[in-house]
Write a structure and sequence with these properties.
The protein is an alpha/beta fold. It folds into two domains: 2-187 and 225-238, Rossmann fold, CATH 3.40.50.720; 194-221, no CATH class. It is built from seven helices and seven strands. The chain has helices at 19-30, 42-52, 67-81, 104-132, 155-175, 203-213, 228-235, and strands at 10-14, 34-38, 58-60, 86-89, 136-141, 180-187, 246-249. Strands 3-2-1-4-5-6-7 form a seven-stranded parallel beta sheet, with helices on both faces. The longest helix has 29 residues, at 104-132.
Length: 256
């Protein structure tokens, strides 16, 4: 079990107040990791730290929108904890809409949040990990929609997650010799602000739920807590020979 030990590892989480980011923060803190939590919601970050009893965390109230934002997150981790060992890029967004109605601004916002932001964090983190010279682990958040299309107005989202998958594989190849592992978690629907509309008791929500559920062999949607085991695996030494992979946490959705 020592292979799964993350105690003392310095881990940066972006999008820390989101559904996945906050669950990750709580679980990793309980496991003894040293955290740097980044997000735009200052009150949300404070509430997370206090409610979860997360001690000695570095807090960065920024989104990864510019190189300076990403560098500030990584620098905060190093300043607080002396080094950087792992990164979870859990920030992102979606705004569904038919392609004929979607504005270029909405498309750009989705691509910026899901691809550009992840790329910037990887760039800043990579500079530190390469300088440290003793490896590390980067975890991006993709989706089953990186491999599968959708009829729900996801042209921008699907494209962004396909880009995330190839960013994962490209960085794993680029950094492999330096023992920096890069992998992606790819869930299907799980409860979050982005999917709240699918849980609504209206025709649109019910139709979406029924359509997705019919293809999940395990017969349920995921909860953010379902990703904790995989995340600890990816950020620990247990995954020391696992890189460049898109790990589908989808209840079997992509097997059908």
């Amino acid at each position: 079990m020592s292979l799964f030990d993350v105690a003392g590892k310095s881990i940066l989480i972006t999008g820390a107040t989101g559904a996945l980011g906050s669950v990750a923060a709580r679980a990793l803190s309980e496991a003894g990791a040293l955290l740097t939590l980044a997000g735009a919601n200052s009150a949300g970050l404070t509430e997370l730290v206090e409610s979860a009893g997360i001690s000695d965390a570095a807090i960065v109230t920024r989104r990864p929108e510019t190189p300076d934002d990403a560098a500030a997150m990584v620098d905060a981790a190093v300043a607080k904890h002396g080094r950087l060992d792992g990164v979870l890029v859990a920030s992102g967004m979606n705004k569904p809409g038919a392609i004929v109605d979607m504005t270029v601004e909405d498309f750009d916002a989705i691509m910026d949040a899901n691809v550009r932001g992840a790329w910037l964090v990887c760039q800043a983190a990579g500079r530190v990990l390469l300088e440290q010279g003793d490896g590390g682990s980067v975890v991006l958040v993709s989706s089953v929609r990186g491999a599968l299309g959708s009829d729900r107005g996801y042209t921008a989202y699907c494209a962004s997650k396909a880009a995330t998958d190839l960013l994962t594989k490209s960085l794993a190849a680029e950094w492999g010799r330096q023992q920096i592992r890069v992998n992606a978690l790819a869930p299907t629907v799980f409860r979050s602000e982005l999917t709240a509309w699918m849980y609504a008791d209206d025709e649109r929500g019910r139709a979406a739920r029924e359509g997705v559920m019919s293809r999940i062999p395990l017969g349920r949607f995921a909860e953010p807590e379902d990703f904790v085991g995989a995340l600890i695996y990816l950020l620990s030494d247990a995954s020391s020979f696992f890189t460049g992979q898109v790990m589908y946490l989808d209840g079997g959705y992509t097997s059908c």
